[in-house]
């Protein structure tokens, strides 16, 4: 659904995605990287924020997909859930994403 929306917004420059799960979600959603890249990622997207990031494999793959395919991305901000357990893992999450290759040489990655 997110990919379909990105394809329909070729001029999108700022993107905010809230990953908060509803209590009804019994299965984790799975991100499968598409073969194509939406036009907004390849030429327009400047800022991306992911809210309520838990560090699941799907969330990690999605964040990497954005960074690897957004040529003009200036800032990627990850807002993690407020949890003492997650605080310990923040450094590991930051390390995983920091090591990810980026299309944009000016992309700044931050965790909050």
UniProtKB/TrEMBL annotation:
Annotated ranges, domain FBD: 39-112
Taxonomy, superkingdom: Eukaryota
Protein name: FBD domain-containing protein
Organism: Lotus japonicus (Lotus corniculatus var. japonicus)
Lineage: Eukaryota, Viridiplantae, Streptophyta, Embryophyta, Tracheophyta
């Amino acid at each position: 659904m997110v990919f379909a929306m990105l394809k329909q917004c070729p001029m999108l420059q700022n993107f905010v995605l809230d990953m908060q799960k509803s209590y009804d979600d019994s299965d984790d959603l799975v991100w499968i990287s598409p073969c194509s890249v939406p036009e907004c990622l390849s030429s327009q997207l400047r800022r991306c924020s992911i809210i309520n990031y838990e560090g699941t494999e799907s969330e990690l793959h999605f964040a990497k997909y954005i960074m690897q395919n957004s040529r003009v991305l200036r800032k990627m901000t990850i807002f993690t859930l407020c949890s003492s357990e997650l605080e310990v893992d923040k450094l590991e999450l930051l390390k995983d994403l920091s090591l990810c290759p980026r299309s944009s040489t000016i992309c700044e990655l931050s965790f909050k």
